[in-house]
């Protein structure tokens, strides 16, 4: 069992990643922290709150964090994720509020309480994580592992040079990559292969309420902005790696973050040729796509059964109340 804290900016692929994490018996979600990214912090937090109730884990804390980057003005990806951040999904509104306190303190306190046991997963801009390691540098020792969906050693997606999560807050990423821990970087070089093709979406269509209300509308909305034969479900790859690290080939590297370049700001400069340098990252280079989807879709299937179970229970309860 791997205990995790997910720092995220839901976000369509964040939602698909959280669903995978919830559906995997190998993972226990200790908390979800939110950051401004794909859409505003208010919306990423609202989406996380809706997701935890829709998916059925209302007891897991959702803790809001930084609204934007350390130094730069906010950018977003509403053109990709929609104004709401979850495309045109219509999940029931959340009935429970976020936790008090700040994401940075939640990350510090959770890792401090379970030294060496909790994996921190960053699937949004790294502002919260950067502030956490600045406020309490021991976070880098307490974390069992720190895994991100972010960066690229080929080309970006927000600019030709930079991937969105890094480009949204390059200074935060630079802090994170020089904090002394080894960052497991699952970048676009891996996640661009994880496409929700027509065959994948057809499997999702057969997943009842989960498919109809979340998975399919997310994949279809996300797919409207891609020329490939389906959208790349980037964040899901980071969670899949935690469940089965053999899915993704990783190599040690020295990663530096460009924070000055006029055209290259947010670029992750990845050097696999270490020389006599110690690596600061393990960088994903390839993914076993068939096994990735088999793992992901079977976890979604588990969540779908739970969702149907809840619906069945609710309709039974209604029947009892109405005396049917
Ligand atoms: O580049 C992909 C990343 O940017 C994903 O985390 C997606 O949610 C967006 O935040
Ligand atoms: Ca994200």
Description of the structure:
The protein has 324 residues and is of the alpha/beta class. The chain has a single domain, classed as Ribonucleoside hydrolase-like (Inosine-uridine Nucleoside N-ribohydrolase, Chain A, Alpha-Beta Complex). 42% of the residues lie in helices and 16% in strands. It contains 13 helices and nine strands. The protein has a nine-stranded mixed β-sheet, with helices on both faces. Helix 2 links the parallel strand 2 and strand 3. The radius of gyration is 19 Å and the shape is globular. The termini are far apart. The model has no long low-confidence stretch (mean pLDDT 96). Bound molecules: alpha-D-ribofuranose and calcium ion.
Number of separate strands: 9
| Ligand names | alpha-D-ribofuranose, calcium ion
Strand order of the largest sheet: 3-2-1-4-5-6-9-7-8
Overall geometric form: globular
């Amino acid at each position: 069992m791997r205990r995790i804290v997910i720092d995220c900016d839901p976000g369509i692929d964040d939602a698909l990643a959280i669903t995978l994490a919830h559906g995997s018996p190998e993972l226990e979600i200790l908390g979800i922290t939110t950051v401004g990214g794909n859409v505003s912090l208010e919306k990423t937090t609202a989406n996380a709150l809706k997701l935890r109730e829709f998916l059925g884990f209302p007891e897991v804390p959702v803790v809001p964090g930084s609204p934007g980057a350390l130094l730069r003005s906010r950018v977003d990806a509403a053109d990709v994720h929609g104004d709401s951040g979850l495309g045109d999904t219509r999940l029931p509104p959340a009935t429970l509020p976020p936790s008090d306190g700040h994401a940075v303190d939640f990350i510090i306190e959770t890792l401090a309480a379970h030294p060496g046991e909790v994996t921190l997963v960053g699937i949004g801009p790294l502002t919260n994580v950067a502030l956490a390691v600045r406020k309490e540098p021991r976070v880098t020792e307490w974390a069992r592992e720190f895994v991100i969906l972010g960066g690229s050693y080929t080309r970006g997606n927000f600019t030709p040079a930079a991937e969105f999560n890094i480009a949204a807050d390059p200074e935060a990423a630079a802090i994170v990559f020089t904090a002394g821990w080894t960052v497991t970087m699952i970048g676009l070089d891996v996640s661009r292969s994880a496409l929700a093709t027509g065959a994948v979406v057809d499997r999702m269509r057969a997943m009842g309420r989960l498919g109809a209300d979340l998975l399919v509308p997310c994949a279809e909305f996300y797919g409207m902005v891609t020329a490939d034969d389906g959208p790349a479900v980037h964040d899901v790859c980071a969670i899949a790696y935690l469940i089965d690290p053999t899915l993704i080939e990783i190599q040690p590297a020295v990663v530096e973050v460009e924070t000055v370049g006029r055209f290259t700001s947010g670029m992750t400069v990845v050097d696999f040729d270490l020389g006599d340098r110690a690596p600061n990252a393990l960088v994903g280079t390839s993914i076993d796509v068939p096994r990735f989807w088999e793992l992901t879709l079977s976890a979604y299937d588990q969540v779908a059964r739970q969702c149907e179970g809840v619906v069945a229970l609710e309709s039974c309860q209604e029947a009892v109340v109405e005396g049917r």
